[in-house]
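Bug #77: duplicate submission created two jobs. Keeping one. Sequence:
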Amino acid sequence: MTLRIGVLGLFRPRRLIVKAGRIRAGAEPLAAPQVELSIENSAVVCQAGTRRMAVPAVSAEDGVRLEIPGRIERAYAGAVTISAAGEELMAVVELPLETAVASAVAAEAPQAPEEALKAQAVVARSYYTATAARHGNFDFCDTTHCQFVRETPPAESAAMRAAMATRGLVLRYEERPFGAMFFRSCGGRTLTAEDVKLDPSQYPYFAVECPGCRSNPSRWEARVTRLEAARLPSENARLHLGRKYGWNRIASSDFGRSEDGDHVILRGVGEGHGLGLCQRGAAAMARSGKGYAAILAHYFPHSTLSGWRSR
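Kept job's structure:
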């Protein structure tokens, strides 16, 4: 299985430097190991040495590096295609499933213990294989809208080892794979899908105790309008307020509230939506000697762990 992941879209790039062993401008192979792309009048303009040409797209393979000048540079193991999306450049990387899983693990849980990384790999794979494509021009993006991805980790990395050690394993509920979810930390107990007004039909996300977070939860406080407070707790409303005020404003869906004139004070615990795998709790379980299968069984009750088969 190969996934098409849109990368660097958060930066809305209008210029990109592409470095690779093999680069094509449209159908034409280029001798240059590096080209600079820009967007002009909704078209991709490729500068290769002294040559400058407008092309529908530029593609590259053999260990591609993409650089937004002065901002960021990332390396990808798969083939990359860059085309125009309005007045921006759209870069799409094609990655084998297990490489995509390792990339998500490396970005989402870089410091976790080995067994927690394996649990994260199964969750990432379950999400990728059971979730329909979420974008029109590619399957998934590299932000937390889908799964956070930075770049392809080395073959000897802990993230790649975790992906390979759990290769092909996904979570199932009532015999069907489901797009498992995860979050950073909770207040000592995870939430259900109904708690945050999400559809429970694919998997209801049974609430479970989380000893790793209960003794010392992350705490936050926010002041919102009465109208905003009336829409909470709802994951969609929380994300809307995150886009409006910043992602740490309403850090989780686990909070109490008190009146403050025309506003409401929210005092909460945890970070994230509270559904599924608690990364902080999983790390604590791993440090206590629990294996990845036990971690997954704890955070996803009534699920089973088995091989994935293409639909």
